[in-house]
Design brief:
Elements (H helix, E strand, L loop, with lengths): L8 H8 L3 H12 L11 H14 L2 H8 L60 H7 L1 H47 L4 E4 L2 E3 H8 L3 H10 L9 E3 H10 L3 E4 L5 H5 L11 E2 L3 E6 L5 H9 L16 E7 L2 E7 L7 H9 L3 E7 L6 H12 L4 E6 L8 H9 L13 E4 L8 H15 L2 E2 L6 E10 L3 E10 L2 E2 L3 E4 L2 E9 L5 E2 L1 E2 L4 E7 L8 E5 L2 H18 L11 H6 L5 E8 L2 H12 L7 E9 L4 H10 L1 E6 L5 H10 L3 E4 L2 H15 L3 E18 L3 E14 L3 E6 L2 E13 L2 E2 L2 E3 L3 E6 L10 E10 L2
Amino acid sequence: MSMDNKYRVHEVAKDFGLATKDITNIMTERLTTPKNHMQVLSDDELNVIFETLTQAHQVTDLEAFLTPKKVAEPAPKKETPAAEPTKEEVAEPKVETKQPERQTPAKGTKVIVDTRKGGQVDLGRYDEHVDELVPDKAQNISSAKQKIKRNSDRRQQNNFGQKRRQEEQEKMARLAAAAAKKPQLKITIPDEISVGELASRLKRTGTDVVKALIKQGIMASVSEVIDYDTAALIAMDLGAKVEKEVVVTIEDRLIDVSEDDPATLKPRDPVVVVMGHVDHGKTSLLDAIRKTNVVSGEAGGITQHIGAYRVKLKDRYITFLDTPGHAAFTSMRARGAQVTDVAILIVAADDGIMPQTIEAINHAKAAKVPIIVAINKMDKPDATPDRVMQQLTEYDLVPEDWGGDTIVCPISALKGDGIPQLLEMVLLSADMLELKANPDRTARGTVIEAKLDAGRGPVATILVQNGTLKSGDVIIAGKSVGRVRAMRSDRGDRIEKAYPSWPVEITGLGEVPDAGDLFYAVEDERMARELVEQRKYEEKMSGNTAAKVSLDDLFAQIQEGNVKELNIVVKADVQGSVEAVKASLEKLGNEEVRVKVIHAAVGAVNESDIMLATASNAIIVGFNIRPSAAISDAAERAGVDMRMYRIIYDCIEEIEAAIKGMLAPTFREVVLGHAEVRQTFKVSKVGTIAGCYVQDGKIVRNCTIRLLRDGVIVHEGELSSLRRFKDDVKEVLSGYECGLSIDRFNDLKEGDIIEATATEEVKA
């Protein structure tokens, strides 16, 4: 029962015109619960009291019970026999103060008897009768009932409110449980992303992300682009899990570059490259191995293209690549070393190591392939193999006979001496490498050479490095795509399949690919042609990626990350001038820039010089000569820079100026200013903020700083933020206060001195 509407025992007794003791007696008899006159009654207890009173005093008795006590008037003298009273007759019953049970009416009194039996009494059924009989008492009863009803309504409201609150609590608990079970948001972020796009992926507003960036000391608008590391840090702060986004291109969908399962790998034949100086016997060695005469079909005995041959030794095969020895094909020789497993370095016993031999050694080392040295022309009377081995040690090729690990085989390609032992050493080196490939996948490999044949169209010599190439396969090689119409072996036989380590000649490409291009067999020809068009467009937009070196843009190319090496071809009118120019140019080299004269000769510039400069990315320097119109046009088409001089000092000064542009600039440190730490603040997710006073100079945002404590350098790093009041600023001058934080350093203390520094280039 509500404490605001209390209905006590004495109030019930007063409303019914009874003594308090009467009510307490009823409570004791019916509820066996003694009550005092101030006890608050519940609804159930009130119902029991009303039921007892209405059962004990029927309708006629209730009237007398509720009206003031009086003596009954005597009946008329005329007596009538006793009979059952009718409903129309009314008499006043004799009233007593205590009447727990119904009393017999006095003799001669008219009584109306209520035919309703005792039991649960519905007060509403006779409210109107009570109102007619005893208005005042009925009003009191009505007031009591209204009190009880109000109390009941309030309790129902309270119960409803409690139920409502309980439902809300249960709902919140369910939401909390759902939030706990909700998986963490996962997003992918590319190398660069705009703040707005990051907010969209995080399902947050741009303001949330900007605020998170500000907490990290980064001022960026919604449209600005941030890098992956910054975006990942912000995303993790906002509760997301970050993964690096992998951009799936047409090339990724078309070309399968997945690693092979080791269980699918099978042994393959070794691929061997023969390298060395011109006319030291490379082709003669292959001629002796294949038992055919290749040299006779070549002009001057010099190999004019990269050949690939497959030879059988007992029950095994070896694939040989014959790279040209002439300097004009330097880049092709480098590609030959990159696709091979073992390199045979052939050195003439009478000549020893020559400049192109050194280049061959460097190419093989760059390709990280084992080198087997073949000392050729051992049949000549002036052969000195010991001198050759001595020269090899100067290039870290120590023969096994001298305690090293380099295999050296003396041979005679002309007579065939020592060749079987050389091939056995090749197979032994290959076995040590455990060469394997997966023949049960789409083919991929390298274009060794390509040309345009008048009758067959584009023809390419390729080396299959993995998988199996079938006739009819669609292949893409660089910017060329087509379907394999025909395949021929190195001996000219038509074949239908080419397995790993097989060199074959194919036709069917739409264009002539470049030597060194990677080729892939693909399933979707339409997508392959789309990829080729995309590659052509990218090359067109970016310009010629293999830009030729010129003195005008030499420094710009070096800035883009090209090798700091300047190749020069020298041509002059007389031999004395050639030697003088060559010696002067080579002296210009230093530790940072290497000047290399790759060719020096007497005479005018010819087509061979243009080819050499194109392959070596060199500059042609002419002294006292003039190129013809045809040579000038050829140089312009090939992108070769030619410089002609009449005075040798002009040549030296111009080349020297270009070289100085290649040198790394010299820098020195400049102190910008000092600031004293006056106060420190620790901010969550940001770190320690120092309130500083700039003593002299200025403090610049993102400058390099030194933190000095008692004159000792405690830390060197960079400022991550610089503010005045609440605004980010670029610099704070002397005499002003500022707030700053140091990147990844929080051990700031009052009294520390922050020294701001910068570097500037020292002009020569």
